[in-house]
From TrEMBL:
It comes from the Eukaryota. GO terms for molecular function: serine-type endopeptidase inhibitor activity. This is Serine protease inhibitor Kazal-type 8. The keyword Cytoplasm does not apply. Residues 1-59 form the Kazal-like domain. The keyword Thylakoid does not apply. InterPro entries: Kazal_dom, Kazal_dom_sf. Keywords: Protease inhibitor, Serine protease inhibitor.
Length: 67
């Protein structure tokens, strides 16, 4: 993902001014405001994160059934 981010960083800067991004869930289980936000974290903080899926991260829910 880091290579892809480096190739698209200028595009991200341009797009972020035109339209808002949709949230995505990163492999660190943090919701990012879009792929550009995730790429910014990867490039500027040296993090090793990948996109898990589109949409906000969903916390794991545990159900306990009582009988």
């Amino acid at each position: 993902m880091k290579v892809e981010c480096m190739e698209n960083i200028n595009k991200c800067r341009f797009i972020s001014y035109i339209k808002p991004s949709e949230p995505i869930c990163g492999s660190d289980r943090v919701t990012y405001s879009g792929e550009c936000h995730l790429c910014s974290k990867i490039l500027h903080e040296g993090l090793n994160i990948t996109k898990l899926y589109d949409g906000p991260c969903v916390s794991k829910v545990t159900f306990i059934l009582h009988f």
